[in-house]
Amino acid sequence: VVESLPTARSAPKCENTVQALLCRNLNVKSATLLNATSSRRIRLQDDIVTGFHFSVSERFVPGCTLKASIVELIREGLIVLRKVR
């Protein structure tokens, strides 16, 4: 019984250490996930803006004066940007 006392005393410390490590790892993984999500969102916004620019440049070719087409293009772009936010 005397030999098991040091082990019994250190068990709570080990348990606390393990819990602390698990919590730390969970926090690190959570932060990494948030950063990855934010990064993906930024890339998605960049892709949408790039696509929008290409679409605009295609519709604004010299000689094209379709005002309705331009207005519709702007509306589409605003709808997409609202969805991303």
UniProtKB/TrEMBL annotation:
Its main location: mitochondrion. It is a single-pass membrane protein. Keywords: ATP synthesis, CF(0), Hydrogen ion transport, Ion transport, Membrane, Mitochondrion, Transmembrane, Transmembrane helix, Transport. GO terms for cellular component: mitochondrial membrane; proton-transporting ATP synthase complex. The keyword Transmembrane helix applies. One of its GO terms (biological process) is proton motive force-driven ATP synthesis. InterPro entries: ATP_synth_Bsub_B/MI25, MI25_plants. It is found in: Mitochondrion membrane. It comes from the Eukaryota. Belongs to the ATPase protein MI25 family. F-type ATPases have 2 components, CF(1) - the catalytic core - and CF(0) - the membrane proton channel. CF(1) has five subunits: alpha(3), beta(3), gamma(1), delta(1), epsilon(1). CF(0) has three main subunits: a, b and c. PANTHER family: ATP SYNTHASE PROTEIN MI25 (PTHR37774:SF4), ATP SYNTHASE PROTEIN MI25-RELATED (PTHR37774). This is ATP synthase protein MI25. It comes from Dichelostemma ida-maia. The lineage of its organism: Eukaryota, Viridiplantae, Streptophyta, Embryophyta, Tracheophyta.
